[in-house]
Amino acid sequence: MTPASPARLRLRDARRWSGAVALTATCALVAAACGPPPSLGGTSAQSTAKTTAKSLPACPLAALAKTPGKVAVSLWYGGLGGATQATMEDMAKRFNASQSKVVVTANNEGASYDEVLRKYKGAAATPGQLPGVIYLEDTALGEMVDRGQVLPAESCMRAEHFDLNQILPGARASFSVNGVLWPGYINVSTPMIYINKVHFKKAGLDPEKPPRTLEEIYQDAKIIKAKGVASKPFVLSLKRWFFETWLGGIDEPLVNNGNGHLKPPTKAIFNTPDARKLLEFFVKMNREGLLNVFPNTPGKINHYLALISNPPESSMLIETSAAATTIKAALGGGITAKNGGLDLGVGGLDTKNLVPGGGALPGIRAPGKIHPSGGAFYILNTSSPATQAASWKFLQFMLRPDNAKRWYLVGSYQPILRATANEPDVQTFWQTDVAGVLLKPAYQQFVGADPKQPQPLIGPSQDFTPIIEKMLDSVLLSGADPANALARAQADATKLLQDYNGGH
Fold first, then answer.
1. Tens-of-pLDDT digits for all 504 residues of the chain?
2. Is residue 352 part of a domain?
3. Which of 391, 448, 380 is closest to 414 using CA atoms?
4. CA 302, chain centre distance (Å)
5. 8 A C-beta contact, residue 136 and residue 117
6. Which of 143, 232, 273, 474 would suit a FRET pair with 105, their CA atoms being 20 to 30 Å apart?
7. Beta strand 180-181 with 185-189: parallel, antiparallel or unpaired?
8. What spatial distance separates the first Cα and last Cα of the chain, rounded to whole Å?
9. Closest to 449 in 3D by CA, of 223, 206, 248
10. Number of compact structural domains in the chain
11. Residue 184 sits in which domain range?
12. Do 183 and 200 lie in a common domain?
């Protein structure tokens, strides 16, 4: 595919939103006119939108020491399960045991990031209902800055003389606005390919060489199907994340204004020849019986359990690097077809014939072209100064190298600190643990992520995502024409952006 020629995306210390327009009580997907959300109890949205490294608000560290007794911090999280959820809860318990001043309570608020964000929006007008810390998907960054209810964690990092250069540059860039790092800790995940090595060997393919491009996926899938190894060799979950990452890998943004990093985006610009070719490629695979298509359903894991279905259904999957612990659990019998949400009839899961392999995300032209994604922990400025300082202390605890390593070894989230990879047990993990062997190529592509090409920064991202995914569903589940579907989605997304920004 030949890319368009937009300027390479750059994170600049440029002006973010210049102001805010009142938010209507509800905002429909595209029809309702809704501007950027106002501040609802924290610092003004206008002041946080203009925050730069030279104008950081103060981190109220002294308030914690001046407050008698213990300070309670509520943490809202969601979208975690299995080993990742256990890691989250254990992190809070170990922090509480490590000191006597702050008590963190970790509250699971939903099966998906979206559920947590919706709950936050519902409570935002009454700050007393909000937690001290909230864990949200990477795509929520723009809106959280716009709302004016976040204390940028960089304020506390600088106050405590934490060296921000410890954080890998790709992660820092993807979670910064105007050069300011907003979350206090980041659970980084990246899309990658998983394969069933048993299937590759049966098909006469090299099980140690996962495909590196989409064209190689197509060629391997044809061989696997022709050999009768799997009926629909390649699994594709219809997520915006994968669509934007593949286009980003050839320097094609979703929105204008440097993918939203130079100033607020006013237009969607993803209806390009390369985007049409990408959709047409998957239409071709689907037509030839090579594609196993799943809609993006939060909380469901049936799309990657298809790799161990009986009879064999699929052999390759694009999914998050954080899925490595789920695959490990499936191998150990910790996940069944029933609790995985997969209707496999009498066959069930065939873990005896799974030897999992992993590789960098196959790209349109080259592998590993990703931007760090995942989840982020924000300190809300709607609580008391003492609670804000206590919230930082918890995030500071997670920033310790041993805890960043724990998030990786147990929770499958990529370690954001530079030094982690050199730890002996991480090196051993990569060589001997099922999850570690899968995660090593994902870590390598994370380290190689270009900080000049961070993720899209879109304020109304929660409403932007369904537009993209509805378009993908229409093409690959309902047979819509790719060109027409892209044109409709781009028009709807542009209207959403213009409504969000008050029409300018």
1. 333 333 333 222 232 322 222 222 333 333 333 445 544 445 444 445 579 989 999 999 999 999 999 999 999 999 898 888 999 999 999 999 999 999 999 999 998 999 999 999 999 999 999 999 999 999 999 999 999 999 999 999 999 999 999 999 999 999 999 999 999 999 999 999 999 999 999 999 999 999 999 999 999 999 999 999 999 999 999 999 999 999 999 999 999 999 999 999 999 999 999 999 999 999 999 999 999 999 998 767 778 778 878 888 999 999 999 888 767 766 654 444 444 333 433 345 566 677 889 999 999 999 999 999 999 999 999 999 999 999 999 999 999 999 999 999 998 899 999 999 989 999 999 999 888 999 999 999 999 999 999 999 999 999 999 999 999 999 999 999 999 999 999 999 999 999 998 844
2. yes
3. 448
4. 19
5. yes
6. 143
7. unpaired
8. 34
9. 248
10. 2
11. 58-189+371-399
12. no
- CATH number at 73 reads 3.40.190.10
> Considering the domain boundaries, does residue 38 fall inside one?
no
What pTM value is reported for the model?
0.87
On whether both 278 and 157 belong to a single domain, the answer is no
Residue at token pair 């610009």:
269
- Are residues 389 and 346 part of one domain? no
**Does residue 357 sit in the same domain as residue 221?**
yes
Indicate the pairing of strand 71-77 with strand 102-108: parallel
